Amino acid sequence: MKHWIERIADELNEMDVEKHVIASGTSISGSIHIGNSCDVFIANAIGKALRELGNDAETIWIADDHDPLRKVPYPLPESYDQYLGMPYSMIPCPEGCCKNFVEHFEKPLFNVLDDYGIEIIPKSGFEMYKDGSYLESIRISLEKHNEIKAIFDQYRREPLADHWLPYNPICDECGRVNTTEAYDYDGDIIKYRCECGHEGEMDIKSGNGKLTWRVEWAARWKIFGTTCEPFGKDHAAAGGSYDVSSVISEEIFDYPAPYPVPYEWITLDGEAMSKSHGVFFTPEQWLEIGPAESLNYYLFRSKPMKSKDFSPKMPWLDFMDTFDRVEKVFYGEEEAPSEKEGRKFKSIYKMAQINPDSPLPFRPPFRFLVNAYQIVGEKDLEKIFAIVKKNSQLTKSFADKEFEDLSELEVSQFSERVDNVIAWLEKYAPKFVKFQVQYDSIPNLPLPDDQIAFLKDLADLMEEKEFSSAEELHDSMYEILESHGLKPQKAFQAIYKMILGQKQGPRAASFLLSLDKDFVVKRLRQEA
């Protein structure tokens, strides 16, 4: 079963080209999140798949850092509205920690590229205009501006003005690029007027301007020899950027449009991601709560145009359950639900892998560790491991191991997963998931006589008998609570009140078996 990334690579492999260039790009209008960085992840995966087929392939990433600021991104102050309309490349760093606005928002992505195994060659739109990379394309566009205007008018309700030119100078007076109108040119000199009232001239060799977007996109396809490019679904709409740029590419620049890979937006808890409203989740934030492979898995587990909603809150546990299961199936630690599902799981995980030679990672179930960590109450890996082992949460390759048998790499992976759990509990877990064992004192929560009697009988049982599994203890607990005429909810509430000081907690049988036996017996008897 081939993954959709592999099928794209197969089609590209049929093209008669010496080298494949997979392009990706991001507008540096604020924080780069898991929605608008999809280009990078998809392009990187396609490049890797092409190289596996023996192709010469490179992946590039173009920062659209010469575009105008249209909205002030979160969490910048309102005072940044003074820069609206100015190119990102000419806006100062909001915190004074970087050389400018662009570097400030690029750095968090660049810092985690190695973690995700992403190999890209970064490019800057600003630098390309400054170093003359676009110069030939600009001259061609000016010479053929009437032909370009005719292409645009095919997709517009109202035709462009007769004097329209496909270029926007940066105003010498106000510094804005989205308020200027180029109306004439003489060689490399552009004449323009700005909404601020200024009229002036500029030399295209200065780099103080830019091609209009759809012309720019087509121009850079030829500049880089792009053969494939992923992009958001807005560009893929009928009559949208890709359609128009494709015509411009072929008719103006004499270059075939690259293989398109459109993708659907990712929503965050059902809400569209927005840099200006602070609704986003970054690749850097993802690494705080999950391994890099899990983001690759999230992006590649379904076709690119399938809608995706992400939540780092309670649904995260379900997602990690699924990821853990797929990883275990891939490494042969667990059987897939069916042969077909097994092939599917392995195909997706292959795409998600950072290093194809990686051995089986030591990652006990995330959901179980949420409870195990809180039971221990601190990051004591040996104690947490003991609880994991006691509750049969180790897969077959680790089932017979003790903590001291783990390799240095496995301990590191275990530590990373516990860190992920801690970060999730602190930042995203709902209150009902959190608990703290009251080791030092009995919570002052009075219980009725039937609950006290239930706890006493349960203490006697746990003192007298060794349980081999949580299921066995669970069945025995039900026998006791039924003998006291207690509903399960009331019986379990009594346990949680005495040990946690609250009415709810993790699954009772597994929880009790994870605690020190003497402590449990005494606490159920309200002795300590």
Any overview of this molecule?
The longest helix has 20 residues, at 408-427. The protein has helices at 4-13, 38-52, 101-110, 125-130, 135-143, 145-153, 213-224, 233-236, 241-251, 283-289, 292-300, 315-330, 339-352, 366-376, 381-390, 408-427, 449-464, 470-483, 488-499, 508-514, 517-524; strands at residues 20-27, 57-64, 121-124, 167-169, 180-186, 189-194, 199-203, 209-211, 228-232, 259-263, 266-268, 271-272, 308-310. Among the domains are: 366-433, no CATH class; 449-525, Arc Repressor Mutant, subunit A (Orthogonal Bundle), CATH 1.10.10. The two termini are 59 Å apart. It contains 21 helices and 13 strands. α1 (4-13) packs across α2, α14 (366-376) crosses α15 and α17 (449-464) crosses α19 (488-499). A motif ('HIGH' region) lies at residues 28-36. Its main location: cytoplasm.
